[in-house]
Amino acid sequence: MDALHRPLLDRSPALLAEGYAWLPNRMRESGGQVVRTRLMGRPALAVRGPDAVRFFYDERHVRRHRAIPEPVRGTLFGRGAVHTLDGDAHRVRKALFLPLLHVDRIAGVVEHVTAAWDEAVPSWAARPRVTLFDAASVVLTRGVCRWAGIPLAEEEAEPLARDLVAMVDGFATAGPRHWRARRARGRQEARLARLVQDVRSGAVTAPADSVLARVARHRHPDGEPLEPGTAAVELLNVVRPTVAVCWFVAFSAHALHRRPEHRDRLRAGDAAYAAAFAHEVRRFYPFAPFLGGRAVTDLSWHGERLPAGGLVLLDVYGQNHDEKLWGDPYVFRPQRFLERPVERDELIPQGGGEPDTNHRCPGEGITVGLLEALAVRLARLDHTVPEQDLTISLRRIPARPRSGFVIADVQAPAG
Which CATH superfamily includes the segment(s) 12-411? Predict the structure, then answer.
């Protein structure tokens, strides 16, 4: 039996046990940038490096259709989402999100979210302690809904934020977190499907060219409008990842607490340093462990072969901590992004490739813009950090500071 069809040991239990370290450990064992393994009963080829990113996003080699496991579709992305499409269907649906790449759109969502942050800080000052992860999720929910044109009553913000966080928090686990994510998605898809129907009927007026208006009028390649449920899925695929920036806000606070020397340059409003800090938070801290696709045909990469239909895994966490690319990958050092230009397919916390044609997240610019602005606000926020458990377990996907990063003695800025 040749190497292509030789049975491999299924490594799914090891993934559950090792979390983010699973693929980096396999790479270390193989001594290279590629490894054959088996996951969820399927042969898999794990790859890493800028060339591997380009290989992974080439639709002649790898497709996303039917590659995302149902538990992930049913919680994180939603059924029929743009992430699950390929070819013309993907490109037509992706056009719905391309305006998010525009500088003015990024500035708009940053403006709304920072305004919501500034509105929230005085209420934090009135409380003995604030869990930053939770508070940031509410701020982001209020800001992105205003920007997207989604009606949101004041009392709806916290329940919606909890549901959006649950969808992200439960995608890669079994048990209570997973079922909480499914219930949250069901509630919010039903709510937004009704909203889309109300916009189409004229019962609700969506702000001109808002995300809500664009989704309500978007059509399939055959000219038919999106089903209300699919439209709801894609609305959530704008709102949900924006609210997921609360993970990076908590990580930013963690970095500033552990390494307070970065605070002064952020406080001073050094824009280039704020961008470098945002990139380093996304590189250094764990979020997506890897991405997956299906082999279109029999494939070979660096001498390792994979049959058609097998899984191709892009080692996101491993690449963002690859010594060959970063030199000192386990040191938090924003300066690295000021020392040399980083290539598109080197830093891949939200995927690689071209955002206008590939599966790279079109909201990546929004994430970076929000992190730049909120890191400055965090650095300028007078507060204390009480004793708490700030460990970040790499076995938990998605990882987060165990305490959610609690702050106390918040001082509201004068004026």
Answer: Cytochrome P450 (1.10.630.10)
